[in-house]
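ok trying this again, last paste got cut off
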Amino acid sequence: MVDPRSGFCKANSTFYSKRKPIPFPANHALDLTTFISSRPHHGKVAFIDATTGGQLTFPDFWKAVESVSTCLSEMGIRKGHVVLLLSPNSIFFPVVSLSVISLGAVITTTNPLNTAREIAKHISDTKPALAFTVPQLLPKLADASNDNHLKVVLVGERERETPCENNFSTSSCTVIGSLEEMMKREASQARVKDRVTLDDTATLLYSSGTTGVSKGVASSHKNFIALIETLVRRFGTNAQEEIYIATVPMFHIYGLAAFTMGHLAMGSTVVVLSKFDLEEMLWAVQKYRATYLPLVPPILVGIVNKADEIKKTYDLSSLRTVLCGGAPLSKEMIEGFVDKFPKVTIMQGYALTESTGGGASTDTMEESRRYGTAGLLSPSVEGRIVDSDSGRALPVNRTGELWLRGPTIMKGYFNNEEATASTLYSDGWLRTGDLCYIDEDGFLFIVDRLKELIKYKGYQVAPAELEALLLCHPEVADAAVIPFPDEEVGQFPMAYVVRKAGSTISGVAVIDFIAKQVAPYKRIRRVAFIASIPKNPSGKILRKDLIQLAASKL
């Protein structure tokens, strides 16, 4: 009943992946760390610090995981406990993550750029039993932990007897050791290790979902194993010879799944950038002879625009593939890049935190040249295109909300049954909040977003969060936040503000008010004042009207 060309089945209005299904372990009592460590490969160096050149070979890496797991067990970390990791990208990020996961405990990550207020909400929600962080972020974590006393392990060398550390250790948090010390410990096979199954929770990563309110996404060991099998299928040929640049943040589903887990399972080498910087990234490609480079569309555009200058300055001849996610690339973007770098293949992908990084992808240059597509459905993934008004599943070339079902779909939202019930149905279908269609050849195209998220350099920004903050200002009567298009960053938040009677508050004052409370990528960068915010009869902001208004002023 399934059309081999499109993958569509008329009997149940479901699209089936045209890619070969992925295998699953026969053993249900299996944790993610054991699965990754037991995979056969011939890789030598696992991680390289792009700045210092420090390395972790595969044997050193797994020895470190065993040692840290032993220490965590002795600290009383058990199955189900949550451990917070607040850190920029680091070669030690995977050591912490997989050590925690090996015990059946749950790793939760947060953006190092987040403010203390944002981190405090995360801590209040997840109630971690332990936190790992770098010395530079100690003051921020201390400010965020006032109501939740935390035990903290430092990642990296600390400055001894610094004021911030003394304050940190005597107020809301206690520094109990360092990762360096833990990695030197002799591993013990006698450590307490609870029985872990594929269905147990491995990670809690935060996503704004379809509502714009940040929620913890609970993903299982099975979810990540399924994604790793997908990545192995996609990149596995001679993977141990490949060198990837970790340009995306490891706290994000893409960075955590790919660079902390996936490429480790394949035996590839990952060169880690602590933060994104275009020149440092290009220098790292040249120095380490990188073959794969993950990017988001705004960075790709920047490279195309400066291609002639870049090629004169950096030797990028080792590059074979660019991986791009966050938004589908246009014909102009793809051909502009290929014109400048004709030997480099562009591959694209579509995924959500709620789908543990699975969804759709283009795996060849030929597939990417179906311009505007996000690719074919990932292996073992099913899709439906659903009319938002009638709830009816639609056939080929009809536009509706994309639903996904498959082995990478999350368990649900952490401690939020209402949000889970509205997003994840009992039969396994995930509502993505994206308006899409699938064409006659099975390629997915994203038309628009039903969810109201702003994509700034690949980061998700929820308008609702910024609007709530704006309404706390004593001179603001009402406010709405919309995405404003920008070639360099993709989109940035723009605010429409209604002043209270008698107020003369300026746009600069509004921008400064928000900037003090949120991470840099969430900052409002444009303000317009308006008599009233357009809303429908039920009070919902009519963002499309404001987006059209902003476009008319360009």
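PB: full thing came through this time. The CA atoms of residues 305 and 336 lie 9 Å apart.
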